[in-house]
Structures are given as structure tokens and as C-alpha cells.
Amino acid sequence: MGKRNSAIDLIKLIKFFLKYCWLILLCAVVGFGYMYYNATKNKVVTYTASGTMYIYNGNPNVINYGYTSTSDLNSAVQLLDTYMVVIQSNKVLDVVAERLTEDYPSITPDYIATTLSMGSIAQTGVFTVSCTAVDPQLAADICNAVMDIAPNEIKRVVSAGSIEIIDKATVPTVPDYSSPMKKSLTGAMAGAAGAAMLLLLAFLMYRKVRDTKELTSQYTLPILASIRYEKKDSKDPQKFLLNKNSPLDVLEAYAKLRMNTLSTLAGQDKHSVIITSAISGEGKSTVSANLAVSFALSGRSVLLVDADMRRACQGEIFKYDERIPGLSDVILGKCAWESTLIKTSLSNMDVLPAGSVFPNPTELLNSAAIRELLPKLEQAYDMVLIDVPPVNIVGDAFDLSPIVAGGIFMVRQRYSDHREIRKALLQAEMSKLNLLGFVYFGQNAEHTGNSRYYKNYYSKYDARDKASQKKFVNRSETSNQE
Predict the structure, then answer these.
(1) Contact 288, 421 (CB under 8 A)
(2) 212-449: what fold?
(3) Quick count: other Cβ atoms within 10 Å of Cβ 63?
(4) Is this model's pTM higher than 0.70 or not?
(5) Whole-angstrom Cα distance, residue 248 to residue 236?
């Protein structure tokens, strides 16, 4: 019943990023402001002086640069790291500090170490010695002192190769300048990139059902109907009950569910269907009640059975006391099923309540009494709809698998979890429950992708509106004649 689909829907990903582009912009602004503040707060002007030195391997041919071989250059490059370590050693820095003490009494080897930086030029034997300090003269003096002392110390420590000064450091006249705007833009890009990575991670880890396309791409079950769920101001469950004045798109969605359900049952002797879901809160009780009303409005006799004996909900919708005798009492033989029926405003629709609370409802739904009861209900009604508990919470629905024609599986947009759906479908397959298909229940049902378009579309085809307009026109003409 399920199939793997690991590909990322790029269009859906783009829409997701567009939806949360404000978060990316916000993080970019925060990053820009943070870096700009740090770049301008307590800014210290520094100067960098640099000199260059050349390493050669001691071969006389190396002195003449025109005859330097490739092997000589490779040897010089390999010596570079060793020379850098020697130059930054305490021995060299102590001598440098001692030389500079007369002009800079407070200078220390540790301070000199913090100002120095070295690096090779394009993987050659040439490398630079740089010193960064707040005083340009100090930067040049430290750099030149290091280059003067380093060669002798290197010869003493390293027997291979030699070093030669190419250019000494000069006193820098232009301070080091790092544009606050450049740093701020870097911060903005870092903030935006961080937000984008978090959004991508959230998109990949999101397990809820977004739309019908996910159901068709990941599961083999068909979608029987996409029903729009519209929040109402009132908390009264009866406000969700279908009636002749309901929006046309909702009426048509339940009509489609009704016809597709009948189509899947074609050729079967049984006509009892359970409505269930993976977890609670996915709208199975609401859809069960409205589907029963839709069958009744089409002229068929229908019985809605509240088999969720743990959390009965139909009493809230149809306004009856849920403590009255019902299904559990009928199964236990306490009363006849005919005496427990609740009559609705529709003459061809009845409700069989859940009945008295029983410690273990699973035993009742797995008993011989329910197997004897269900055929009687099917003889008395054209359609029997059974509202059962979620299958991932209790296994009541699976107890009815052998005696019902099939089951309808509810999926609620941005609520149902794919992991729970797969778990439920696996259990249904193991129990041989004939699932007829999904019912997609959400605020963005398939036919409401462009709400304004479909609103205009349904308004054109709503005969009720045309009838009312015709009556209004007739009344206006009559009043004008008078």
C-alpha cells in the first residue's frame, strides 16, 4: 500500500522557501547589523610591514636563478616549513626583542610573536615575513630585525639549505583598512545562508502531509475525495454537519466521496464501510457524519454506527445523550438494536450510538454477536457507515476486517504524519482490511488551490444561487407592475 519516494520536490521546496523568505531576510539583517557594530566599535588602526626572503638548497647553481632546476625548487619549498618554525622560535624572538629594547623598552618576545605572520609565494622558495602593529615604524623595525637575525639562526639549527634576504621592510604609510560595509555584507550573507540551511533541514525533516500529491506519490491507495475543512467561529460540532445550504464545493466533495465509495463496492454483497485514521484528530467522526448525511440526501437509507466506544463523538454532533443504550448494549444482548436507534432530521438516516462504557471494547467487536448483527443492519439499510477508533491507538477496526466491505482512511492536511500512515497501512495489510482509499481533509483541499478561481467557478454552477436570483427578479418585476 506504500511506495518509497526519496526525490525532493523542487517546486514544493521553492514554495516553502518563498513562504519563509522573511526569515532569511531577517537573519540577513541581523547578521549585517551585528558585523557592522563589531566593525565600527573600538576600531584600532594598524599598519603592516613586509619583507621577502629566498630559500635555496645550498647548490651553487641555485645562486644563478636562470639555472635553477625543478628539483632544487622542490627542495627549497620543502625546507620552507622548517624555516618558518625556526624563525618563530623563542631563541630568535628573544634576540629580536633584545635588539629592539633600546628603542622600545616595553617590548617582549610574546608581543613580537603575536605581530608576526609568514607565508610562501605561489609555492616557490620565496616567502614573506610580515609584522602588524599600531605603530608603522615598530612594524618595520620588528620585520627587519627578524630578517636580519633569522639567517644566522637557521644556519646554526638547520644544516641543509640557506636563506637570503630579497627585500627589506619599509615603513608603511597606509593603514590596514577593512571596510565595515564589506564585513557587514559578509555577516548578512552568513545570516541568510544559516537561515536557508535551517529551512532546508526543516523541510527535509517535515513528516506531515502537505497535499494530495504526496499521497499519490508515496502510496498506492487512491484518493476518494479531497474535502475542504473550514474553521468556524462556533465550537459546536453540529455547525460542521452537512446540509442543503452548505457551500457547493463541500457538498460536491462529499458527493464525490459517496460515488467513489459506491464504485469501489461494486460487485460486493456487503455494503458496510468503516471510517478510520492513523491517530485521533484527523476528522474521521466529522467525515463519517457528513458522508452519512450525503448518502441520505441522495435518497439512500443509511445507518451511522458509532463504534468508537472509548471516545464516542457522534452524540456531540447529533445532540443526543451518549450514556443511552447503544452498540455495546446490543452486542451484550441487553436490548434490541432497533430500540437504540437515534432518529435524525433526515427520515432515511439513523444513528446507532456507542452505548454503555465497556472495559474492553475489542472483545465486543471481535465477538460472534457483532457478526450476527452486521448482516441484519445491511438488510435494513442501503449503506452502513461505522465510525471506529484510530488504528494506531487501538485495534478495534481490524476486528471488523472480516465482516465489512472495506474501510476509508482519513488523512488531515499538516496533521497526519507519514510515519503513522505507513504504520497504519502495514497493520491494515496484515489484518487483510480492504482499504478503499484515502479521504484528504484540509484547508487547502485539491480543488481549492486557487480559492478565488474556484469560488467564482462554483458560484456559476450553484443552482441554488440562480434560483434565489430568479425569485428576486420575479418579485422585482411584480412590484414594478404594481
Answers:
(1) no
(2) Rossmann fold (3.40.50)
(3) 12
(4) no
(5) 21
Specify which residues 384 forms β-bridges with.
Answer: 272, 303
Can you spell out the DSSP letters for 319-361? T--TTS--HHHHHTTSS-GGGGPEE-SSTTEEEE---S--S-H
Where is pLDDT greater, at 65 or 272?
272
Contact 246, 455 (CB under 8 A): no
The sheet that has 47-56: what strands, in order across it? 116-120, 126-133, 47-56, 162-167
Of 300, 260, 272, residue with least CA distance to 378 = 272
Measured CA to CA, the distance from residue 214 to residue 326 in angstroms comes to 39
Q: Where in the chain is the domain with CATH 3.30.70.1130?
A: 47-167
For cell 503513522, name the residue.
Answer: 420
Are 109 and 89 in contact, with CB atoms under 8 Å apart?
no
- Residue 191: CB atoms within 10 A of its CB come to 22
Q: What is the pLDDT of residues 136-181, one digit of tens each?
A: 999 999 999 988 887 887 777 666 557 788 889 999 988 887 667 8
Residue 326: closest CA among 293, 296, 303, 345? 303
Per-residue pLDDT at 65: 46
**Residue 131 near residue 49, CB atoms below 8 Å:** yes
Q: What kind of architecture, by CATH, is found in domain 47-167?
A: 2-Layer Sandwich (3.30)
